[in-house]
Every structure is written in C-alpha cells, then in structure tokens.
Amino acid sequence: MGKTVLVTGGAGFIGTNLVARLLATEGIDQVRVLDDRSAGDHGTLADLTGEPTHPVGNLTDPVGNLTDPVGNLTDSRGSILDPSALAEATDGVDAIVHLAARASVPESVANPVDSHAVNVTGTVRVLEAARQAGNAQVIVASSAALYGADPTLPTPETTPPDPRSPYAATKLATEASTMAWSATYDLPVLPLRFFNVYGPYQPPGHVYAAAIPAFAAAVVEGTPVTVFGDGSQTRDFVYVDDVAWLITRAITHGLTSPVPVNVAAGTRTSLLEIIDRLGQAAGTTVATEFGPPRAGDVQRSQADISRLQALVPSWSPTPLADGLAATLDWMRVHLRGR
After folding, report:
1. Residue 198 annotated to the active site
2. DSSP-based three-state secondary structure for 84
3. Which of 41, 129, 188, 318 is most buried as measured by Cβ atoms within 10 A of its Cβ?
4. Among the options 167, 198, 201, 239, which is catalytic?
5. pLDDT digit string (tens) for 66-122?
C-alpha cells in the first residue's frame, strides 16, 4: 500500500509544484493539502489542469475544496493553527511536508507577531500532530535567511546563524523545534534550508513579490524592471521542480537528517545578471529602475551543498538558463490568463 502525504501550505508556490509531482509518483497513493489561503490563491491547484508539465488531471471544484477524479487529492482550506483542522488533516498520514509559513522578509518586518505565530507556533503544532499520528516523517522548510548579512561563501550549515529579520528568526526557531522533537521523541525529520527557489506558480503581482517572478513579469509585459538596491546582490537560485523532486525522493526513500540541510544549486548570481539572462531568453532589452534596498535583505548568498550531495548523491540542479526559460514560458501564460 502506498503512502499518504500531507502538504501544509500546499496551494502555494512550492506546494503546487510539489503536489503535482507527488500525484505522479508511484508509491504515493494519497495527497492531502492544508492551506488557509492567507497569502491568496496564487498557487491555485486548479491551475494544474491542462498544464503539460503537470499531468495530474482536472482538479477544479467550484466550491473551493478540491478532490481529483481518482480520489488521490484532498484539499482543505484551514490553518495549521486550528487544532481540529490539523488533527483531521494528519490522521493516518505517513509523511508531512511542512511548507505553510509567512514566507516574506519584508512582510515579517511589517507584521512580526503574525510571522511568529504562524512560523513558530504553527511548526510546533505540526510537529506535535506528526507525533500524535504515530511519528510520521516530517520534512520542514527552513531558509538561508538565517545566515545573515555576510556569511562565508559558500556557506555550510555549520555557520553560526545571524538572523537579521523577524522572518529569519522564525526559521531559526522552526529548525530548533524540529531538531528538539527529533531528539526528544525520535521523530523522523528532515529540516531543509531553502535558498532562493524560483519557477512556475511563483506570483509576481503583490507587494512582497520575489525578484525573479517580478522581473519575469516585467520582461513579458515590456515594462521597466524595478530593482531594490543596486542589483549587485547575489543569490543562490534553485529551480522549484528540483526542490519538488528532492522532497518526493525524501518521502519515497525515507530520508531523514537530525541537522539542517542546505537546498540550493551551489552557485552565485547577481540580480543584474538575472535581468540580463531574462532579456536574452526573451530576445529583448530590459529597462531597469532602482529603488531603496528592502529592510532585512542580505547582500550575498551561496550555499555549500556538500551535505545535500551526501544525502542525495544524484542531486543535479537545473541549469539557470533552462529554469528561467521555463519561468518566462509560464509567466506568459499566466499573465495572458489574468
């Protein structure tokens, strides 16, 4: 009998891509989603309908609770802070992928208490629910933001954390709780420290939009790209389907780690280079405007991925040029359909 997997935050950017891959994976029979849509429904699971790269069938349900025709997907609109919703979603699960979070640095600066409640208290509730479900495997999303402003590059997981935003502080607490539950209750966990994930279903049109979707939307629409800061900031960009593949493999192979694992391509690319590459992929010249740096942003980022490669020797990140081209293709369809 195959596994039952719950994805918290499964209607979001990474969640949508992950759910598609899980549903297409042999050995995974049931996928559940628990998402309160507090960040909007930009990753709408219904959008998977007809997408050639995500052949998961017609998931559309006009009432808002989605169940696919073959019975493999159940989507519940609810919060991880709601004990009854969480208990129902985790009943009988074999694995939980915990993606639900307030995932923006600027948003955490504006609303630190809300970020703490969801990211810290919410994680503890998920870990406890996993324990009550018979010690289900828990894969937890953390963030490279906790490394701070000027770490050694490439940055290993042993680097002392230096959180420079409320968001980064919540992710440090997320990891600490995850490791504590592993040590105390023998809970099988895998804390994944995501660097800059990008790709299809990442929303461009809100105040806290990440760089690549905002840039890609501007390129598609022929409007100037707005860069916060001087554009020399570097990031380690990792394609979202690589992340979905990694998480799926962790579930099917029972991969765990008592310590955090960087998830990245192990490369360093500036924002100005991203703009140039998007322009090349679109065959156009991109106009650029500059604004003030965003509070809490770090200047440099690149992962040491030795621990990830030891855990998953077959890790092979998608080349940036290919990922950006796929992101532009999705953005053209997305903007045309708005």
Report:
1. no
2. helix
3. 129
4. 167
5. 444 445 899 899 999 999 999 999 999 999 999 999 988 888 999 999 999 999 999
